[in-house]
Amino acid sequence: MSDPKSEALKMMPYGFYVITSKTDDDENAMVLNWITQASYEPQLIALGLQKTSHSYGLIEKGKVFGVNIFKQADADIVKGFTKGRAKNPDKMKDASYTHAPETGVPVIEGAAAYLECKVVGKLETGGDHDIILGEVVGAGVNKPGDAGETLNLPDLGWNYAG
Ligand SMILES: Cc1cc2nc3c(=O)[nH]c(=O)nc-3n(C[C@H](O)[C@H](O)[C@H](O)COP(=O)(O)O)c2cc1C
Q: How far is the CA of 30 from the centre of ligand 1 (A)?
């Protein structure tokens, strides 16, 4: 029997992003769809971040993260970051990226735009993901356009909800 809570949660539409992180001696990139703007002033972003991910430890330590936004036409770039560090230890070695000026977080080559954020809060949910709150302290737009052209989770036929 299907669980209507899971079924309803799966009906919520999501974007799809590459979240980057860094400390003094490590950097990483992961895919994520649980993200939203959470305030206009200051401009805040909230992430639902898996506690067991490698990125979680880096964001906790480095206190910064990047949000890489892609066009639908560039979906193939994002696919290189779907595996976790444990399964794909070389994912950053194989990736092309630069560093954002304010925080130094990786900016993935081919991203249409990026946000760089400083962590300003964390909500320990007691569940398998925590909520990380970041203030947007910088951004860049490489391929201008509207949100209708942005890569979303359903464009890939994948699901992460329920
Ligand atoms: C389609 C898809 C959506 C995902 N969405 C999220 C998400 O919203 N939040 C999250 O913490 N992990 C999400 N993940 C899982 C992470 O990408 C996964 O835990 C990854 O291994 C973490 O990488 P890391 O260990 O290198 O940090 C998603 C994975 C996929 C394939």
A: 6
